[in-house]
Amino acid sequence: MIGLLYPVCAKAQAVAAVEACEQALAVKPNPSLCRAREMLVWMETAREQLRSILAEWPRLMAMEFDPARASALGGLMPAVKKSLFGASDPFSPKVLIHPPGQGLGQVIEGLDAVLERLVFGEPPSVWLKRLDDEGLDDWVQQRGTLGAVCLNEIQRRGWGRVGDLSPRHLPELTEAGLHARLAGPAADAYICQPDWDGIPRETTGLTRVRHLAPMPTLLKTWGNGLFSRLAARLVELAAIPARLRHMAKGLEPGPIRLDPRAETGVGLAQIEAARGRLIHRVEIQDGRIADYRILAPTEWNFHPKGVVAEMLLSLPPGKPEQRRRQAEWLVQAVDPCVGYELRIE
After folding, report:
1. Do residues 232 and 163 lie in contact, with contact meaning Cβ atoms separated by under 8 Å?
2. How far, rounded to the nearest angstrom, does the alpha carbon of residue 263 sit from its chain's CA centroid?
3. Within a 10 A sphere around the Cβ of 160, how many other Cβ atoms?
4. More exposed terminus of the chain, fewer Cβ within 10 Å: N or C?
5. Cα separation, 132 vs 266, whole angstroms
6. What is the three-class DSSP state of 201?
7. Longest alpha-carbon distance in the chain
8. Is 283 helix (H, G, I), strand (E, B) or coil?
9. What is the pTM of this model?
10. Are the CB atoms for 24 and 284 separated by under 8 Å?
11. Nearest to 178 by CA among 267, 289, 263
């Protein structure tokens, strides 16, 4: 049910909710089930990234945009769900997956085709293979696709290093540390302005792909600025079809184990959603939910002293309209999941 409450990243919310509840109730799902649910989240990530890129990047470039293009992945989400789970609810603690057949491969091929047509101008796997520094530069200069045009504009205006700050990426978070922060009367205040080791952290697509080629090279050239952040979103998007193919190997139905002796009534789940780390914590007492906390990536990335705020404060002096455009690009590079108002004072 919790996925119905969220129009954005509903699958990630649902997976986090069911995995937190399963942990609290000592339900041990088959590893293939966990992987199949994760595949739903990655398909949702592709859809969310593509929607944002197709809707916001043309707007910031003052380009014409056909809203129908943003629905290009709309049919792929139910198709991948059906190929993995049939008519079953993937978020039921007792669901069994279906052995994936040709339908799953066709869905992934459909994703490849959409990304080639709307973003890269070539198969995403081909685009990734050419991405040494010179290969990306050639693509930016020569291709007329949306991604290339936007990166070329950022280069042309000399904005590539705008927002370049020392990284403060969110590390692996221990369950014990999260339980301590998300339980008790101080939890609400922590969720509003989270930190780790006293530092407001960043959890974005750049956090996830910063070690993948060609990102180390790009980060040396452009730092953690605007060009690297936009390129990171494209790199992650291009890698999703291959990730899904890899995850689909060896998926098999399997038993779900229950261990009442291990039941604690407390569960926690961490999911990599489209815009960063999503955390759910639940306490179950006498068959009822006694406490539920959600820590979304927006709370980290848009913390009053977080990555977006610090990048905006670092904007160089200039004409108000230029600073506004730079600010809007920085916000979109991080990609908020809620509406916002930007004021230049």
Report:
1. no
2. 31
3. 21
4. C
5. 46
6. coil
7. 65
8. strand
9. 0.92
10. yes
11. 267
Identify whether the C-beta of residue 94 lies closer than 8 Å to the C-beta of residue 100. Answer: no
- Amino acid identity, position 269: A
Residues for the chain: how many in total? Answer: 345
Structure confidence by residue, pLDDT tens digits, 88-139: 888 876 676 776 666 889 999 999 999 999 999 999 999 998 876 568 888 9
Give me the DSSP letters along 260-281.
GGG--SEEEEEEEETTEEEEEE
Query: Where do we find the tokens 């198709």?
Result: 79
Backbone angles phi, psi at 75, to 5 degrees: -80, -15
Q: What is the DSSP code string of 125-162?
A: HHHHHT-SHHHHHHHHHH--SHHHHHHHHHHHTT-TTT
| DSSP 8-class letter at 202 | B
Amino acid at 198: G
Reported as a single tens digit per residue, the pLDDT across 139-162 is: 988 778 889 999 999 999 999 999
The domains located in the chain, with CATH, are 2-334 (1.10.645.10)
Please identify which residue in the block is written with the tokens 């119905």: 4
User: What are the start-end ranges of the E strands in 286-330?
Assistant: 288-295
N-to-C CA span, the chain: 42
Q: Which amino acid is at 64?
A: E
**Neighbour tally for 157: CB within 10 Å:** 14
DSSP 196: B
Is the pLDDT reported for residue 24 higher than 70? yes
Single-letter code of the amino acid located at 187: A
Q: Return all residues near 250 (Cβ < 8 A) that are at least 6 apart.
A: 32
Place of tokens 């261990």: 259
Select from 104, 7, 89 the least CA-distant residue to 48: 7
